[in-house]
Input
Amino acid sequence: MSGLQKRDHGGGLDVAVRTFGGARGDWLDLSTGINPTPYPLADISGNAWTALPDEGAIARLTDAARAFWSVPAEAGILPVPGASAAIAQIPRLATPNRVWIPAPTYNEHAASFLQEGWEVTPEPGSCEASVLVNPNNPDGRLWHAEDTIGTLRIFDESFCDVTPDATLMAEASKPGTLILKSFGKFWGLAGLRLGFVIGDVVLLHRLSAMLGPWAVSGPALEIGCQALEDVNWANATRDRLRADAARLDGLMSDKGHLVGGTSLFRLYDVGGAERVQTELAKSHIWSRVFPYNSRWLRLGLPPADSWDRLEQALG
Output
């Protein structure tokens, strides 16, 4: 695959606009699993914009992350410019062999391992590495520590902040283990490009060298610290997302049945997904379909002022 080609993801509003008309601002994008009510940003210091990030700012952020996610003392924490930046580099941490990546799941993992010469298999067996997305995207499946195999163990918990009790963070202190955390989903700040890799300190030192110095911007360090320390916002947000997910299930009850998901996105079997996507697109609402399953439609949550619009479009 050429580096200029894009893999299948949510988003893609440019394609929707070209196909169904309107301007980007006319569209309600429900094709991603991003919180539609993002963390409210406080003022950012001028120094965060004008100075190179210093060790103190990084230490404050990692301390906040350790507390928020109850990271074991033996595990390291590496802030990264979005979880995707780490996903692209992680296959280089071990000699290419076989990696187990259960399908279907977030496709960047397999693409990155293939790019580095690994053999990717959807079936467990004799493998050097494994990648488990917990909860899984798009069906919300939860994994357990004993499910993993290999000496390089990757747990992608980009959506786990909505279900913190399901985290496998206790595994982070074990050799060969890396846990990914995303800041764009639960906090709704995808444009901030902030993520974390937590786990084996030796692997994190190597990953840090691959990413180079000052990988995370000063504003991202500052905003991330503020958000991770705001536990009350996190708790209230989980409650709201659960209620909104149930509301979405109710709206979709006449279109199909729930397959799974999280409280940030819901996966439905609607019979003909492209047909329903087209129906919604006529009202400038974009959804997610999958090339490997013609029945599945995934919807994120609408913002508070757009529920009526979605209900009308669903008929």
About this structure: The first strand starts at residue 28 and ends at 29. The radius of gyration is 20 Å. Residues 100 and 130 are 5 Å apart (CA to CA).
